[in-house]
## 1
Amino acid sequence: MNAPARTTRAFTQRRRPRGMPVPEDFAEVELPLVPPAAGQAVVENLWLSVDPYMRECMDGDWELHAPLEGRSIGRVVESCSAELPVGALVFHREGWRTRAVVNAAEVRVLPRYEGVAPQSFLGLLGGTGLTAYVALTRIARLRAGDTVYVSAAAGGVGTAAGRLARLLGAGRIVGSAGSAAKVRLLTEELGYDAAFDHRAGPGLSGQLERAAPEGIDVYVDNVGGAHLEAAIGAMREHGRIAWCGAVAQYNAGSAPAAPRNLFDLVEKSIRLEGFLVSRHGDAQVELEEFLVPHLRSGRVTDRLHVTEGFERTVDAFLGMLRGENTGKAVVRLGHDALEPSADPEPSCGHTS
Amino acid sequence: MNAPARTTRAFTQRRRPRGMPVPEDFAEVELPLVPPAAGQAVVENLWLSVDPYMRECMDGDWELHAPLEGRSIGRVVESCSAELPVGALVFHREGWRTRAVVNAAEVRVLPRYEGVAPQSFLGLLGGTGLTAYVALTRIARLRAGDTVYVSAAAGGVGTAAGRLARLLGAGRIVGSAGSAAKVRLLTEELGYDAAFDHRAGPGLSGQLERAAPEGIDVYVDNVGGAHLEAAIGAMREHGRIAWCGAVAQYNAGSAPAAPRNLFDLVEKSIRLEGFLVSRHGDAQVELEEFLVPHLRSGRVTDRLHVTEGFERTVDAFLGMLRGENTGKAVVRLGHDALEPSADPEPSCGHTS
């Protein structure tokens, strides 16, 4: 019987990027794994999440030369906590590494929902799903029959927003994306009523007007900049904008042009509301109650954009920033067949 | 016994202005007064309101060479409507003229609140008061203890916002205005805790930070542009901006620079919501129920900036656009002693 490996592979950030990050901004390192103390456990990561907000972390929140952080799903392989039994699947935030020592207080043992794959907790049941859910319900306060526009509609939040909007009773749902292939995907597989390629055609405003000739009531904004301006232009009176990010801005180095038509907010009684999903953790229970029955019945299926192999985590992240993903971008570490070591006998210390 | 005069003096617009309007954009004319039909009455105007939104009307909503429109308070002097008895004080929208023929369905017979002057229905109980009330309650959803910032704080909406914020339980209330005299007025007479002259000193952001060192929760925006940017910068998390106008923009001819820090709306979970008071007429009852007891008790008094004489209506309007008023800008027509003609015998026709 082998003791669990006492090292972890991890990605660190070597330097702050200017504009779009490059692979050389990162380093893959092997680090010793501190033995778990009381209340801790060793987790073998199975799935890692790469997300747009991480681009912002690279500018300052992330410490250089330290293992990066991110949402992750793993299995407990060694435990000094009764709350984290060996074999348990857990959600935690020590991503970008193969193994992590986690504190019981900071992880969630995942419920086993029949017919729901654990990795959905990085998808529709994860941060992106929660972002879309909070955007539609708490921020935009979607009403039955509303016309909804989603930018970056083929991305993680976008694919979730389209499907959730349908389940929540929206009327027409339109999306924009950056390629003809994505546009097809939106209407053929992801339930959008209309979609357009914002890189083709006669400009955003004209395309949005054709896709939603009677205007839009709700805009889920992942993008900012020109998309926000076009959406404000297309808004009907009392429209609502749930602003959850601005991918376009993160790499720009300077603030993007704000919408020139911002005063339309007054003229059309529009609400523009930003939010951080991290402030809405209490909506997670509601999301699961709402969505799990639909996932179980197959009415919706999760759409993950899977990159295989831990060593390709940076590729997955950079590809997501370039908009190459369709659906939520995740990395699978190839440990699906992983069996917990039987009868582990860790020497548990005390947490400080 | 003289029959009521069958003419009215009125202001018309001669041409569309470029930038700040000038007196020559207007003309004072004498027009015949069509005899009232059934359901109509002749009103002798006592008070006229001049408002920032009228600058926008000049660009298109107002027909050239026709009598202009605006909120007004007058007395019924001749009536073909049982709902509008001679002598009644009414609120109506046929301003910019000395007399008007009004339809009973389109005017409001003013309630007589003891201790409340009728002209308050152009002030705290009028459109500006309602704008401030809706901004604070429905849009910003003011909470007890909130720090409130008001730009153009010595203007019509601003003076109302400061006093209403206090009555509604705000914590610190800070305002900006365009002169040292106004700044003194704000703190000495209008209940502001701090105020600053945005035309003096080291720039808006620094001044706002000194006036509200712990940040602001609510911003009532009458101005847009640089004020909006400074307010976003000073906002605390979950701040709310009620945007009811942009005086600075109306004369600019082109859209003003939008805030460069707009993305802070996401980072700080800020809500920026525009509104038109005309969509919130149903809040009028609530406003009166809330405010009349305070007006009656003298806890607040209305602050009107009165220009005397109908012939000076254009001066009052242009002065208001230049920010010369402190409090709500109105025109008094000098008919206070007006007695209704006794036993009028109008020949009432039929409305088409």
## 2
Amino acid sequence: MERAKKIREGDVRTASRLIRNIEDNIPETRQIIKDIFLHTGNAHVVGITGSPGAGKSTLVDGLIEWNRGIGKTVGVLAVDPTSPFTGGAILGDRIRMQRHAEDNGVFVRSMATRGSLGGLSKAVGEAIHVLDAMGKELIMVETVGAGQQEVQVMNYAHTIVLVLVPGMGDEIQVLKAGIMEIADIFVVNKADRDGTKKLQRELMAILDMSPNRSGQWRPPILTVESAFEPVKFRKGIEAVATTILGHHRYLFDNNVIGDCNRRRSRYELNDALVSCILDPILNQLIVDGEMDRMVDKLLQGETDPVTLAEEVAGKYLQITAD
Amino acid sequence: MERAKKIREGDVRTASRLIRNIEDNIPETRQIIKDIFLHTGNAHVVGITGSPGAGKSTLVDGLIEWNRGIGKTVGVLAVDPTSPFTGGAILGDRIRMQRHAEDNGVFVRSMATRGSLGGLSKAVGEAIHVLDAMGKELIMVETVGAGQQEVQVMNYAHTIVLVLVPGMGDEIQVLKAGIMEIADIFVVNKADRDGTKKLQRELMAILDMSPNRSGQWRPPILTVESAFEPVKFRKGIEAVATTILGHHRYLFDNNVIGDCNRRRSRYELNDALVSCILDPILNQLIVDGEMDRMVDKLLQGETDPVTLAEEVAGKYLQITAD
């Protein structure tokens, strides 16, 4: 309870250590997650996604500044391996990020894609609770939108912002594969580049074709000029920041916040079930040496993986699969 | 057994239907997978990975042609949402792909990132068995290397080819996040572009820093000129094709094929365990309405996900977690 209390008081060291333990999937974290859980649910969780090089971090950096300007506390989880927040980018970017380090109202953490099988998704979900319990009002989760787990992470967000840049031919194609359908706000970043108009038209056409949007929130397409144009950049950031706030208000005004929270809880429960059901069995199989024996059988062509897995299920499960 | 026999005879319609059923996770596929499993293990499985726009499909197309030229049968699984094989790319590319449609020695299928929790990885693993049982000697799996599941898919490959293009600043950064360490062959594609030398130098530097390569296979860095230079392109493709063969031979000559197959079996077993243990429990919870009741409790702040998941584990599992 002591540590949970420290987190609720916003203690940065305790929170950092807890998030690291969550990443490493250390069993002792469970009790603290339980303790803080009932003090969560207040933050607005915003997913920021887009291809590497789309300028997500610069945008996030601008959004931190704007929100601090209106007095909001901000938490950031960077899951993108190219993000300067995670230390993946060039030196200049990293130095730029340092400027929030002194500000107690900002807490930035990077998370790596370690572990397997939904491990990232579960870890990010729990880290969001930590930031929420710390009292961060706006929590931004930055991630590349390419892989399935990265898309899954977005299920924890109330508002999903998709960041695009003009002049990347294949990009729209990639995005069609999943993120496109769930984005609430489109941002065309570096909009002083060639191809901005074309990209806007393409996005508009895709939105027009989308069947499920009628009567609902229609995702706006915003533009942000690159950071080399400070005044225009700031205007662009302001538009994005206020639209994010607007989407949050929309969720409440139209009674869709309930559906949104239900979906988030469901995903979180799913992740917890993997962790509490599958992981103990896998651990047991490894400890018993059973895993190695099964692999031997496969290599000798004695049997197949599904037959083996069914045997394991028969041994450990108290229900029978249909 | 009838359908397993048809697949072993190379029947395209039966194989296509089976792969579709695998994607949709239809329970009846299990028996066929079992039936064909003992007739697999003959193919050389090659993973082709790299960012969208790196030209993976053009390379795969060239490799199909080269291998058909030496009489090898070829199977391709395209998991990349931007691949022309999956129908994600521009018209010209798609037409180019059609030319293999008449050739019985080539079987190309695309697979989508449907389902969740290792679903893609499991589906691709099983589809590889289908192509293997059909008698395809070389099986290429094309995927973008960004997400965790896409990286997981590579665990099924004997040989991993990483395709890069010059002039994409952030790319190397992304790749550091996982694929870089496991690639066996680097291909700098579109090597008539600016920045090829720079990219080669960077790759070389990364390989030199890599600690685990001494005494082992050192990944060669090959270049392929763009397809607009047909003669040079073909020479580049030939070098890639023979290096892929060379890596396969290396695995046998140095007795590492055993380790490689062990790793592949282990991943496959893991995927099967998820499918046979977790899926039945989730289904049961949904059918009983228990899932909805649990989500209600979460939304009302009565309890937390881990506590609920532990209760489910206590009910369905015959072991207790430590």
